[in-house]
């Protein structure tokens, strides 16, 4: 499949020992600039650099390989199509890709089931016994994944970018187009939602 000069690579890289490319930030910025200008080879290199991280989040959301691979393909195709509108902010290019992945996943989720809209809860917890503290140390566990996927989509994105991908507050805030203070409020609400769900599962 070819879309405006970009052909999505096959997923052989995901089925063998694969070392993703790493480049200094300035070199990546140069690749992004070339890709924005329509250079498909530069975008293919960016694909090689980031496909593993994108696939990890896609798999986390989809829960199976086939749907995850399909979501990766959609993510990079949509990214290629959106590149002319790309603007550099304080967020890494990968965070922009993961935001596209998030939006696609949410769109698919809304087609399959009604969005969860539980009210905000702000219940203080003791750090030593806080299930969120425990959960963030074992995010690969299925029960934790299921709990994260039950909270509101914007709060899912906060948890995934902040605690799975490990981005700093300012980076995630820039990726989401929010102020750092607004992001901290959103992060607090996301953690409160996750805490409530995990406490419910403990009962």
Proper CATH architecture of the largest domain: Orthogonal Bundle
Give the class-level CATH name of the largest domain: Mainly Alpha
Q: What is the chain-wise order of helices and strands?
A: HHHHHHHHH
The count of strands amounts to: 0
Radius of gyration in whole Å, from Cα?
A: 18 Å
Mean pLDDT: 75
Number of domains: 2
Biggest sheet details: none
* Uncertain segments: 10-21, 114-131
| Tally of helical segments | 9
End-to-end separation: 49 Å
What is the global morphology? globular
CATH topology of the largest domain: Rna Polymerase Sigma Factor, Chain: A
Residue share in β-strands: under 5%
Q: CATH homologous superfamily of the largest domain - what is it?
A: RNA polymerase sigma factor, region 2, helix turn helix motif
Could you walk me through the main structural features you see in this protein, from its secondary elements to its overall organization?
With 203 residues, the protein is mainly α. The chain folds into two domains: 1-113, Rna Polymerase Sigma Factor, Chain: A (Orthogonal Bundle), CATH 1.10.1740; 117-203, Winged helix-like DNA-binding domain superfamily/Winged helix DNA-binding domain (Arc Repressor Mutant, subunit A), CATH 1.10.10.10. The protein contains nine helices and no strands. It has helices at 25-36, 40-62, 65-82, 93-112, 131-135, 142-148, 153-164, 169-176, 180-202. The radius of gyration is 18 Å and the shape is globular. The termini are far apart.
């Amino acid at each position: 499949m070819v879309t405006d000069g970009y052909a999505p690579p096959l997923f052989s890289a995901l089925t063998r020992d694969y070392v993703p490319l790493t480049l200094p930030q300035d070199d990546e910025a140069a690749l992004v600039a070339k890709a924005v200008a329509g250079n498909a080879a530069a975008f293919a290199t960016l694909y090689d650099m980031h496909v593993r991280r994108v696939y990890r989040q896609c798999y986390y959301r989809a829960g199976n390989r086939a749907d995850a691979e399909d979501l990766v393909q959609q993510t990079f195709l949509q990214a290629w199509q959106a590149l002319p509108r790309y603007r550099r902010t304080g967020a890494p290019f990968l965070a922009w890709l993961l935001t596209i992945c998030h939006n696609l996943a949410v769109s698919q989720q809304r087609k399959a089931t009604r969005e969860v809209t539980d009210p905000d809860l702000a219940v203080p917890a003791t750090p030593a016994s806080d299930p969120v503290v425990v959960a963030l140390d074992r995010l690969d566990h299925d029960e934790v994944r299921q709990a994260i996927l039950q909270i509101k989509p914007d709060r899912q994105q906060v948890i995934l970018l902040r605690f799975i991908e490990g981005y700093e507050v300012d980076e995630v805030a820039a990726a989401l187009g929010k102020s750092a203070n607004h992001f901290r409020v959103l992060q607090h609400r996301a953690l409160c939602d996750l805490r409530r769900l995990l406490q419910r599962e403990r009962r």
